[in-house]
Design a protein that fits this description.
The chain folds into 2 domains: 32-116 and 223-258, Periplasmic binding protein-like II (D-Maltodextrin-Binding Protein, domain 2); 119-214, D-Maltodextrin-Binding Protein, domain 2 (3-Layer(aba) Sandwich), CATH 3.40.190.10. Helix 5 (148-159) links the parallel strand 10 and strand 11 (166-170). Helix 2 (56-68) crosses helix 8 (233-248) and helix 2 (56-68) packs antiparallel against helix 9 (251-258). The protein has 9 helices and 14 strands. It is globular and about 55 Å long. It is α/β, with parallel strands linked by helices. Strands 1, 5, 6, 7, 8 and 14 form a 6-stranded mixed sheet that branches. Helices cover 39% and strands 26% of the residues. The chain has helices at 2-26, 56-68, 82-87, 102-105, 148-159, 173-181, 192-200, 233-248, 251-258, and strands spanning 32-37, 40-41, 45-47, 53-54, 71-76, 93-99, 108-110, 115-117, 119-124, 140-144, 166-170, 187-191, 209-214, 222-229.
Length: 262
Amino acid sequence: MKKLTVLACILLIVTTSFLAAAGQKEVSTVSSYVFAANCAWPPLEFVDENGDVVGFEIDLVNEIAKVSGVEITIRNVAWEGIFAGLSNGAYDAVASGVSVTEERKQTMAFSTPIMTITQAILAPQKAVGLSNTASLKGKKVGVQLGTTGHIFLEAYLDANPGFAVQIKAYDEIGFAIEDMLNGNLDAVVTDSVIASDFVLSNENYASKLKVTGSASDLGDPEPIAIALLKDNTQLLTLINTALAKIEDNGTMDALKKKWNIL
């Protein structure tokens, strides 16, 4: 009887140790993540002349990985369907100039904002009078498909029956700009930071384009943040903790200066 009792105790200890080890494995910290980015938005994320993915948010994500001690892989994903990929688990987060909107908050969580933008009007150098949304009446205007510039302009058109504008949506904002330079559009509505980059930083466009005005009535100023699933609290905490460190140590300001984020 005593031998059986001792044997039972040994089995209990072994079983308890096994379960404890299994429990520890289940709660282990994730050490690698995949972030999606639509790399067609200079200066936030784009493919340079060497074929490398670069930009402000690319550098920022790399800094988040550095200060957090984790590995983050950035995957170049088309904008159309980027949030569906997040929803189905193809990647852990989206760092791609994502505007925080009430609609998106219903299905996604957002990090601390990394910048605030408005909608800007980009036009050829010779253009005159395109200073605000109302001035786009009767014009052909390009947008990137599914972006807030597209969504807001469509909503403005619906809310103002007397406002007639021909909206043409493109898979990438660069395609819209090229079509405008070919004479097929009067203007392009896009995020202010994107518009500024094409004028201030891109030598191929600086002499051909100008930011003619603000479409500030197309929605409120938009916070830009990193998007992730609502239940991924571990990753949200990691990102926000890292962003606070990056802000405090001056890295955020240095990156914005590097990429002409005004």
